[in-house]
Design brief:
The chain is an alpha/beta fold. The protein has one domain: Spore Coat Polysaccharide Biosynthesis Protein SpsA, Chain A. The protein is built from 8 helices and 9 strands. β1, α1 and β2 form a beta-alpha-beta unit. The longest helix has 19 residues.
Length: 247
């Protein structure tokens, strides 16, 4: 049976990581959708490494904070799955999340990458499914999942929860670390996937909770804005196109 490697980069976000892992374990049927968890710890000082060891989670403990793209790449190199999933540590999944995305990835000819919808995300993946608490989110997610909404072709998926075939990874390679510590590495990866003939799909029936920008909230807002603008320029210099056209 095909297995999915779930790769979670993290930095000083143990509480969020615990919630993310708990939801994965609670809402993923390992008999139907086998998976492995790989946490890539960017030199956290909050006990993340010890907790992962206690939980029996495969851990890559980096000596310094390398940023999101580099951490993802380290996890991808270790992954043994037939399918690969990059997941932010501030994402909470719900019932059917992985099976719903795998159904699209494996069932649609030419599909190479899929992603869910969420409460906090840019572009077309933003979904308005109101909820008032985390428990209420799971109610909303179950209702959405039951609607059997069809996957939709899309030009760009956001990397907070991005599932793709190993075939895609083998063909196009790793995330581009010029975008470290983060922003636009996912846009770049999606463009490269499409250039190599893979189709991207959004799964409207899979609704996940995203805390949103948790990795950057501790930073100076002005510095974050400058980083986003810098990486946007890097993307434009690399491809001679404006990434906004893929939103």
């Amino acid at each position: 049976m095909r297995r999915t490697s779930i790769i979670i980069p993290t930095f000083n976000g143990l509480a969020m990581l615990e919630q993310a892992v708990d939801a994965i374990r609670r809402y993923t049927n390992v008999q139907e959708t086998p998976y492995e968890l790989i946490v890539v710890d960017n030199a956290s000082t909050d006990g993340t490494g010890s907790w992962c060891v206690q939980q029996g989670i495969r851990l890559i403990a980096l000596p310094a904070n390398t940023g999101f793209p580099a951490a993802c790449n380290r996890g991808l190199r270790l992954a043994s799955g037939d399918n690969l999933l990059l997941l932010n540590n501030d994402v909470t999944v719900s019932g059917g999340w992985l099976s719903g995305m795998l159904e699209a990835l494996q069932g649609i000819e030419g599909a190479g990458m899929v992603g869910p919808v969420s409460n906090y995300v840019s572009g077309r993946q933003k979904a308005d499914h109101p909820f008032t608490s985390l428990a209420d989110f799971h109610r909303a997610a179950a209702e959405v999942y039951a609607q059997q909404l069809e996957p939709q072709p899309i030009m760009r998926l956001v990397g907070f929860c991005m599932l793709f075939k190993r075939e895609l990874y083998d063909r196009i390679g790793e995330l581009d670390e010029r975008f470290s510590p983060g922003h636009y590495e996912d846009d770049d990866y999606c463009l490269r996937a499409r250039m190599h003939g893979f189709s991207l799909y959004m799964c409207p029936r899979v609704f996940v909770h995203h805390e949103g920008s948790a990795s950057f909230k501790r930073d100076n807002p002005q510095a974050v804005t400058q980083l986003v603008e810098r990486n946007r320029r890097l993307f434009q210099e690399k491809w001679q196109v404006d990434p906004a056209q893929f939103m």
